Amino acid sequence: MSTAPRRRLTPDQRRAQLLAVGAELFAAHPYEAVLMEEVAERAGVSRALLYRHFPGKHELFAAVYRQAADRLLAATRLDPAATLVQQLAQGLDAHLDYFVANRHAVLAANRVLAGDPVVQTIMAEELDALRTRLLAVLPLAGEDARATVSTVLKSWLVFVQVLCVDWLTEPTCSRSELRDVCIGAVLGALRPLLPVDPAPGWDGSWDGS
């Protein structure tokens, strides 16, 4: 493999380039198969320069995953003009798009690095941000209801995460079925807690309309 010609970049530009190369490799290969030497070669930099930006593979992966989480949150801003089902479907589709395209990275974060505090903190912060957004669009009857619904959403988001990771490992249903199971699970859990039905007419499947 030939080495790319080295370009003069600012430190921020170089970091962005290394993150892009890292994201590509972590998406294409299992975590164990990604070598820092290959990252440096693909980026056209010395290993010494790479290690100045990222002391090791763990730090590079964490930075890649942080960037992915930030982009996923940006892609899942809930539209208040849309129905709850539409908002849930949009958010789930954005995440499933990423999970499918970056299967190895998702499995690394949830399996290989399941006990890593840095990666787990990134995940927890993303789930908390999603829970806050969902609370903002639900018809809550008061603070007591908010606390209860918040707890339900926290558990549901973990359920979705585990279910989707298992699906990546062994897809026992279609992607649309997986999304509908996730939507149905949260609607079933929320309906007894809300003053009005959050999804009147929901028949258990989302057709995109």
TrEMBL record:
Taxonomy, top ranks, is: Bacteria, Bacillati, Actinomycetota, Actinomycetes, Kitasatosporales
Gene Ontology molecular function = DNA-binding transcription factor activity; transcription cis-regulatory region binding
> Which PROSITE patterns does this UniProt record tie to the protein?
HTH_TETR_2 (PS50977)
User: Does the UniProt entry include the keyword Metal-binding?
Assistant: no
Keyword DNA-binding, does the record have it?
yes
**Name recorded for this polypeptide:** TetR family transcriptional regulator
- Annotated source species: Kitasatospora cineracea
SUPFAM superfamilies, sorted:
Homeodomain-like
Residues of the HTH tetR-type domain = 12-72
UniProt keywords (A-Z) are:
DNA-binding
DNA-binding interval(s): 35-54
Protein origin, superkingdom: Bacteria
Q: PANTHER family, per this entry? A: HTH-TYPE TRANSCRIPTIONAL REGULATOR RUTR, TRANSCRIPTIONAL REGULATORY PROTEIN (PROBABLY TETR-FAMILY)-RELATED
